[in-house]
Amino acid sequence: AMTHHHNFVVADTPYSRLCSNKSILTVNGQFPGPTIYVTEGDTIVIDVINRARQNITIHWHGVKQPRYPWSDGPEYITQCPIQPGSTFNQRIVLSDEIGTLWWHAHSDWSRATVHGALIVYPRKKNDYPFPIPHAEIPIILGEWWKSDIQAVLNEFLQNGGDPNNSDAFLINGQPGDLYPCSRQDTFKLSVDYGKRYLIRMVNAVMNNIMFFRIANHNITVVGSDGAYTKQLNSDYITISPGQTIDFLFVANQPPSRYYMASHVYASAGIFDNTTTTAILQYTGNYTLSSSPMLPTLPDFNDTLASTNFTGRLRSLANKKHPIDVPLNVSTKFLFTLSINLQPCVNSNCSGPFGDRLLASVNNISFTQPRIAILQAYYDRISGVYGDDFPRRPPFRFNYTADIIPRTLWRAGNGTEVRVLRYNSTVEIVFQGTNTVAGIDHPMHLHGQSFYVVGWGFGNFDKDRDPLSYNLVDPPYQNTIAVPRNGWTAIRFRANNPGVWLMHCHLDRHLSWGMDMVFITRNGRTADAKMMPPPRDFPRC
Ligand code: C2O
Ligand code: CU
């Protein structure tokens, strides 16, 4: 295995989109940030150098960081932010990850512009469980705000309502030619007739699950979240913020130019009908008959189009790529995911009824501590967090009813963790609720991938629903969209000692408190214990 060294210089950089200029936070001046290429099992050593005027941390999304939570990155969970003028030397050790993952800032909303792809090749070149592509192309879905992103964050936290939408979605940093001033720079992918291509897609959008489609071309999904999947044929994909999807397509249509397009899937609330586009163009000589046609994407509120795609993902689960789904479970949780309301202290807030919007897991809205939980755990500093995060919600009620008693719209606040024994086998059932609004929540767990063993609409039935779990080839993900007013069951083995954040990857929900923390204890043997912190670890 190799060690790759990189510098990540974080700095404010002038960029221009949608006919106007602004300064955005970037890594090495690039937006989207640099793509990092490694091979299975390699190590990445990164000097994160903060030359910006604000705090930063970098998270390696989907990298398990075995026994080494020190480089995981979420601010005030595993570390304090890297302050302006300082450097943090992060060591990222890969284990079973393969395919596409990504890295992003994990401090306030800076991930809006501070993100990039991480591509993990198999040990033997082209040793893919699918036909070898002629070329591989990363595609990052992102967003552009005309205003300053920190200002957007501060504004909605202060006024208590929904955040402003971005001004455009982006494909590889470009809004596409449906927007003014963008035609020149629209992302274009040149293909040769008859050849096969692998797209490595990352959804780096802040607050939306996205649909994506290439006009006239079918696709075959072969991987997601840093693991291979069984081949899945489709004409569109659904991708959650945080999720990655690898898919193949063959350039087998009459040589021409075709649109690739993406727009929002919004089960509730914020809908933005803008479509971002890129262009697939065949090489060679041909005459363009007309301008390219936009592909038909599913409707913005088409929940079935979203769940049908996500629910068909399967692990390869063969000899060469076996799965390890726990068949017996030692630790079971039922976690409700809710949007909540809280009275505004001083003035009227712009949430429903003049209240402030919050979000919670098991009715606890997470409060960020002032000392990172990992530091407090390791150094035995008391008073930073509590360790009785509830195993199940405090009330039993019809979670997905249309009318839910307003008393249940309130949530408590707290910094509570749940401690897991080393090697315990864990099942979490996420129950979506209809308090205030029912919406899909893409839940993401740090430090582990998990098997998605079941999902459904309505209230989870603990006697009936487990009978239909898929324990044969469940997909191995790090982010899974819990369907609107439905539930999703995941399983994993807690064999990675450390402090691991779990949260909704819609950033407004994360900012509202839809997060909680697991502490996985050390095992007995030396190779089952957390490693010590690096010397330059950013303490609080
Ligand atoms: Cu993509 Cu907590 O992260
Ligand atoms: Cu959410």
Automatic annotation (TrEMBL):
EC assignment: 1.10.3.2
InterPro entries associated with the record: Cu-oxidase-like_N, Cu-oxidase_2nd, Cu-oxidase_C, Cu-oxidase_fam, Cu_oxidase_CS, Cu_oxidase_Cu_BS, Cupredoxin, CuRO_1_LCC
This protein's record includes keyword Secreted: yes
GO cellular component labels: apoplast
A single GO BP: lignin catabolic process
Pfam families, per the entry: Cu-oxidase (PF00394), Cu-oxidase_2 (PF07731), Cu-oxidase_3 (PF07732)
Keyword annotations of the record: Apoplast, Copper, Glycoprotein, Lignin degradation, Metal-binding, Oxidoreductase, Repeat, Secreted, Signal
Molecular function as annotated in GO: hydroquinone:oxygen oxidoreductase activity; metal ion binding
Reaction(s) catalysed (UniProt annotation): 4 hydroquinone + O2 = 4 benzosemiquinone + 2 H2O
Ranges where the Plastocyanin-like domain occurs: 11-124, 137-285, 389-523
Subcellular location: Secreted, Extracellular space, Apoplast
Cofactor info, note text: Binds 4 Cu cations per monomer.
Necessary cofactors: Cu cation
Domain of life, per lineage: Eukaryota
Function: Lignin degradation and detoxification of lignin-derived products.
Record family assignment: Belongs to the multicopper oxidase family.
Name recorded for this polypeptide: Laccase
Organism: Penstemon smallii
